[in-house]
Amino acid sequence: MADYGALLALPNGAAFITPQSTPLALYTALSVSSQKINDGLAQANIVIPVPDTSQPVIPFVMASKPSQGGVALSSVLRADGLEVSGNNVIGNSQFTMTVYVFTFFQQPMPNPPYGMAVWDENRRLILTHETKVLTDMQTIGSWGNAGGTSIDVTLPGRWAIVPACCGQTLWQFNNGGPGGAIIPIASSFGAMFDGASTRIAGQPSSYPGGQAQAVGVINAGNPVIALEVSKYF
Fold first, then answer.
1. Mean local confidence (pLDDT), 122-147
2. Cβ contacts of 122 within 8 Å, gap of 6 or more
3. pLDDT at 176 over 60
4. Least confident window among 74-78, 119-123, 150-154
């Protein structure tokens, strides 16, 4: 098979794009405001159509910092697109969720049509000087005790994360037998931007209601992938 395209290297000499590779690029960036669902939940939800659900689709998601609590972020790739949700279980705390979607797709021709353009062997335009390629991701935390619900870091700037579950929060009720009933509820990572910095930490995805109190956690012990997104505006 003949080689098509270009070989691009990083300053350290490592290959960044090769003739056999197609870069993941920013397909779209969308924001949605939360809605009050009930006294225990403010939620933002959006379904984003993508060019091809058989291709890798990577969302990076962030939320503005609500006045109370944090925002648990989640995503799922469906047949009709990418569904992304953000939950603030304190309630009455509005926030805005922003989703940056990266995937493989044919690039539009630059307008005006000059600069750099690379086609693959199937004559698909895969890279131009206007393409916003996914790069410079960072891993926050590590596998084990330093990951999951143990992650709570604040980074300067505007950061988004790939949504992931980080463990479970244990809630105890006064009723339900001696010592009360204890139920686990999933927790997910959140990335809350306050205008200057971003806090990345686990957040409860839902609230059991009643007189329940959080009494512990089950740690999934996983890291989270983060991206500084100011360059993708």
1. 92
2. none
3. no
4. 119-123
- What is the full DSSP assignment across 164-211? -EEEEEEEE-S-SSTT--EEEEEEEEEEEE-SSEEEEEEEES----TT
**Helix, strand, coil % (nearest 5) of the chain?**
5, 50, 50
Cβ 73 vs Cβ 163: under 8 Å:
yes
CA-nearest of 71, 70, 69, 80 to 46 is 80
The first and second tokens of residue 159, run together, are 């950061």
131, with CB counted inside 10 A (0-12, 13-18, 19+), is middle
Closest CA to 161 of 62, 72, 64: 62
The answer to whether the CB of 149 falls within 8 A of the CB of 166 is yes
What is the percent of the chain with per-residue pLDDT over 90, rounded to a whole number? 61
Beta carbons of 207 and 69 less than 8 angstroms apart? no
pLDDT of 1 higher than 60: no
What is the C-alpha separation between 122 and 168, in angstroms, rounded?
A: 47
Tokens of 30: 């969308």
Mean pLDDT, rounded, for 108-131:
85
Phi-psi region of 212 (alpha: psi -120 to 50; beta: other; left: phi over 0): beta
Q: What is the pLDDT of residue 18?
A: 62
Pairing relationship of beta strands 72-78 and 35-38 according to DSSP bridges: unpaired
Q: Do 102 and 60 contact (CB within 8 A), yes or no? A: yes
Backbone angles phi, psi at 130, to 5 degrees: -100, -5
Phi, psi values for residue 52, rounded to 5°: -155, 110
